[in-house]
Design brief:
heterotrimer, A mainly alpha (about 100), B mainly alpha (about 650), C mainly alpha (about 500), A: mainly alpha, Helix Hairpins, 3 helices, B: mainly alpha, two-stranded antiparallel sheet, 27 helices, about 75% helix
Chain lengths: ~100, ~650, ~500
Amino acid sequence: MVPLNWYLLLSAAVFSIGVFGFLTRRNIIIMFMSIELMLNAVNISLVAFSHYLQDLRGQILVFFIITVAAAEASIGLAIIIALFRNKNTVHVDEMHEMKG
Amino acid sequence: MENYLLIPFLPFAAFLINILFGRAVLKEKAHWVSILAVAGSWVVAVMTLRDVLAGKTLNENVYTWILAGDFKVSVGFLIDQLTAIMLIVVTTCSTLIHIYSVGYMHGDNGYYRFFSYLSLFTFCMLMLVMANNFLQLYFGWEGVGLCSYFLIGYYFDKKSASDAGKKAFIVNRFGDFGFGLGIFVIFLNFGTTYYAPVFAQAGSLAAKSYNFLGFDVHLMTLISLLLFCGSIGKSAQMPLHVWLPDAMEGPTPVSALIHAATMVTAGVFLVARCNPIFSQSETALVVVALTGAITSLFAATIALVQNDLKRIIAYSTVSQLGYMFLACGVGAYTAGVFHLYTHAFFKALLFLCAGSVMHAMGGELDIQKMGGLRKYMPVTYVTMLIASLSIAGFPGLAGFFSKDEILWMAYSGSSPVGKIVWASGTLVAFLTAFYSFRLIFLTFHGKFRGTHEQEHHLHESPKAMTIPLMLLCVGAVAAGWVGIPALIGENIGIHNGIAEFMKPVLGHAEGHGTHGEELIVMAVSVVVGFAGIGLAWFMYMLRPDIPGKLTAQFSGVHKVLYNKYYVDELYSAVIIRPTIWTAKNILIGVTDAKVIEAIVNGVPAAIGGVSRQLRKIQTGLMHHYATIMAMGIFIIAALMLMRSW
Amino acid sequence: MEQVMTNTMGFPILSSLIFLPVIGAVVLLLLNRTNENLIKWVALLFSVGTFLVSLPLFSTFDKTTHAMQFVERHAWIPSWNINYYLGLDGISILFVLLSTLVAILCVLISWNSVKMKVKEFFISILIVESAMIGVFCSLDFFLFYIFWEAMLIPMYLLIGVWGGPNRVYAAVKFFLYTLVGSVLMLVGIITLYLYAGRTFDILALSKLILPYDMQFWLFWAFFAAFAVKVPMFPVHTWLPDAHTEAPTAGSVILAAILIKMGAYGFLRFSLPMLPEASRAMTPVMIGLSVIAIIYGGVICLAQTDLKRLIAYSSVSHMGFVTLGIFALNVQGMEGGILQMLNHGIVTGGLFLGVGAIYDRTHTRQIADYGGVASVMPVYASIFIVFTLASIGLPATNGFVGEFLILLGGFKASQWAGVLSATGIIIGAGYMLWLYQRVFFMETNQKVAGLSDIGARELAALLPMVVLIFWIGVYPTAFLGFMHESVRHLLERVSDGGVHGVSVAHNVLEILK
């Protein structure tokens, strides 16, 4: 029986990697993957707590998150492709259309 | 009497017909409608006079005009002695002048328009004199002002004419401002604006004082003076006289009807009508008397040196109106109204003769360019001579009796300024005789001084014009015979009819003097009249070089008089130009553009400025946002941890 | 006395009036945009139809009561206690009639002057008409607010799309000015709603007794909305711009109806709902009115632009209206209401007239005119009637209104009466000067050879002329509508702090 804390530590580690990746990398695809990492870190903790508390609602929620994440990933990637077609780059510093 | 409504509404119907169908249908036959209507009014007015002479009067409301809370006013009619005499003056002059206009305006392309305005004027004037309440009086008052505006500006494509019309209207509005306030004060104190109850209460409120704009003033004085403001404007008294000379831009029949015989006397009518109020206030009467005296003197001096035929007569009108106010101011309302009535005839006649001269001279108005017209236009000459004799106070003519009555009342009455205004009135009588005959001599005597072409065209006017002249001439001679003073009348068995007749409305002013004094006053006025005529004859017939020398010697005085004391220039500099300057440079330039718009545009501008600064936070770089987010999360987490400790 | 009288017409007349123009707009929407003639005729048909439907209001209105008439009431959003609640009393009825009339005239005068987006133009006019009628009929504050704001959108489009060269600036200015005021009013409405125990019922709110502090703040919140619409000094600067840039129909609607809504708001809301504050604020309101009268008038003397001059004269004339209303006596208030109507007729007429000549010359500069009376005599004689009514000549409607207002104003404050009366002199000055420069003097090259107005333009102008003399000679026909309502309103304002307690209590009882 693996204790809850280990799962939580794993989740925290994965989340931190995601944050670090998102903040340091400039390639938009890698940043996108980092976001996915963070999302999955949350999923890990949800499943862990669900098991620990013997409450299936946590796992149901995880299914929802995975579904939404899949949709979000596909839209996100579509946007990235559209951007790439227009700007011919995936480097975020060269995308500043939203500058005020 | 039952058909009294026909008196005003016949001319009104003529106005409607002419204005609607004149241009397309009636054209050069437009005068028929108007003349028939006005003549019809005259007939009914004469019948009404007969009834009033028989002692019948009438005060009747037709319908409620305005009703709001306790304020109620009707369209209503009052026919008494004063109204009756005004009806006769208005309809008689109006009818004759309508006929005269057929000849004078012949061939004008606004023919129908001219007659419709004349009829509208007659309607408004009749509504004015027949009103039984102040508000309807005000309706007629403004209505005649409007017609005067239209008719002065009849030749509207001339700038001077349209300027003059506008000026007349606006100057009158200054007077009406006071008049309107007077009506308010009357309503607030009497609770009504009908004459009858107001005049009935005037005595009981005689001692009342009233807080006006923070000052406690004598109520009757206040009302009288406010109403008198209206009179000053309408009757062209100082300081609102400036519009009347300019009003001569209108066609001459208009000058005769509106600016001599009827409309301008409305101010006198107002004072006479409100005599129960004015009589309660000695202050107000003194103001009226002095205004009249000063104006008459002032206008007469200007008339001495003018060269414009119509303007001389216009100043003479201002001066004679001053005479009427002088009479009212010394309490002799009957004398004032009597002079109004005689003046209507001889002054209308003077103007119509002037029109006849203009007609012959091809529109020329400068009397220095006339002369010797006597042999070309005998009828005009004779009638104008009689009118001038009448105004100069030649014994037996209309002007003599009314002028004498005024001077005697001023001399013998109880007014504190009676003697002063008598003296100034006598002086004015001299000046009047002088300038009237200066006009006659320069125009009709001597040699013709105009161009050769003008001389060739000189002719007597058509019958349509000369017949009204002759009829008015009868009036200028005989109109005064209804008011022969007791002094003379006793000996030949006639009594002063008009004074008796007007007594119920205007009261009876008592003179305090002996027959001897009365004879002296009369003799003085006759003598100064002859002296004036004689001086004019001396200066313009016998020694025509004198006027030029005098002008050269007193060039300063001449210039001031010739430029009418620079009153127009003064108003322009003190009122008109500063107002427009303020509007342009302060209200539009500063208040609206720099203050209000600055605030209105400033608030959005300030918001815009702040947001322009805030915008810089938005770099568009994703990692900036990410870093800030991360820092935010860190701070929130840190705060939560700190709190849980 | 009963508060409301049920509708005895047999059909919902007010709803018909509100929705008939909307139906017209929908029909126009479905038409082919290339068939401009059909569009114009359909627009005319619907506006005339609405006018005809509104005529029974005039004949069947019961003048002996202040109660609301032709009432319709349906629940709309019951959970918030919002109702579709319509009715008319002596104060509002005349404006409904004026709105339906003005809409016809606007359609007529725009017949040839609108060249682009004809369909959208007439749709806007019909929508505006519907909203105008709605504003005057609403007895539910929420419904009122919706109409009040709905009016802005088509008006904004009318100015911004079909206006003059500087139209966008003017449209945005107009929109922002009125919106800022309206938003403050919305806050006031919600405050009232919550305080009164969740009701938007205008009649119920008009019986409340509010604490003075609350009345004070609400008064200024409402003031923001109404004063901008009137427009009172110093929030008037949107009006000259909007009037100048708007197309003729837009100016006419603005002058005739839209700016009346501000004054109507004071009468319908500020005075009865906040009587104590209204009484206390009278000196301020009278002061602002007097300033507006003189300020607006003097500015007119220096204007060089035809429409701008008339716009500033509106500021001056609306000063008379607010002076009359806040004189808080019968003469002033009846004069004020009548003057609202008069100003709608006269200034509406002036703008119609200016529109007619602008179509020919395409210039608004006064200096470009001169001698028009020689070229267009019929037009000149109609225009002089508007001019004279504007300067308050007796026997025209302007006199009756201004006289009553000045009388009431003089009664309330002598200084106000005296100072405002100078506005009459100034008014004569600028209007006659304008008339002289446009119509008199030598014919300007730019106007030589213009054709006089035709039957269509005559049809647009004559109703106003008839109304001017009708009200001027027999004002009782119109004053009669308002006697009872004004009496009732003044009673409410004068003893709103004392007499109303029990009534307010009853209302609260009923609402529970």
